[in-house]
Amino acid sequence: MSAERHKTGAAGESTVDIAALRARYRDERDRRLRAEGKAQYVEVTGNFGRYLDDPWADPGFAREAVSEQTEVLIVGGGFGGLLCGARLREAGIDDFRIVEKAADFGGTWYWNRYPGAACDTESYIYLPLLEETGYMPVRKYARAPEIYEHSRRIGRHFGLYERTLFQTVISRMEWQEQEGRWLVETDRGDRIRARFVILAGGPLSRPKLPGIPGIESFEGHSFHTSRWDYGYTGGSADGGLTGLADKRVGIIGTGATAVQCVPYLGRSATGSGAGRLDRIARRDPAGAAAPGPACDLDGGGAEGHRAGRLPQDG
Predict the structure, then answer these.
(1) Confidence grade of residue 300 (pLDDT, cut at 50, 70, 90)
(2) Quick one: CATH architecture of 67-199?
């Protein structure tokens, strides 16, 4: 129901200044708009390419190239790809192949395993295929480990693992008119001819880096929240980041990701020893709340505007 329907009181007089309300929303939007748009970010290539590395995958993974013909090729193993595979199985169609960049199912929940990661949509309507898998969410607002494990549950329940090529990226896709099929090639030398291709990929597996001065010369340890380095911080998704106890830590960004992980960083970096946590705020374009990299500021290099030391409880 729109605000227009609530602008009069019991006596019919106006109680909400709609024009002023809209002006306020426009003002807040304009404060967040940046003329450079996506150019405000650093492309994750070259020296920044390491931010794309998969910390969860086996770096020595190798397999034989696949050459086959299939009815359906699904690109992506997140919720979209899982649902497509599950529904194909239910329809009695077993001749399909899934191609996934990551080393397991889950999509954004495979990548984002930072402390405190959770979904702000009720799990009973967010998690797919609950009835089919017989699973009841543990929490009303599920945390990332539960969502990731449910993705794997779907893969096991519908037998999708044996139909999936993990740690594989499609490099070329071309329609073959005479064959009436797509020719799909991958970075592992696969050549797959498919009658149908379903694109079920998403943008949240690729980190964004802020184009702040000094980021290219920063010498401290840094990583993106979607590639959380527990080998450095210690702990797990539940916290206990003991490796940060004597570190000065900065987190760039104030979106939902920062809101979720800052309390854990605060407890670990300021709870004991000489640790310290700083927030480095920046403006995002309207609608963007991109996760920012967490970094150890002791190494020097990048300069930022600190919002002050956070209290111990985050």
Answers:
(1) very low
(2) 3-Layer(bba) Sandwich (3.50)
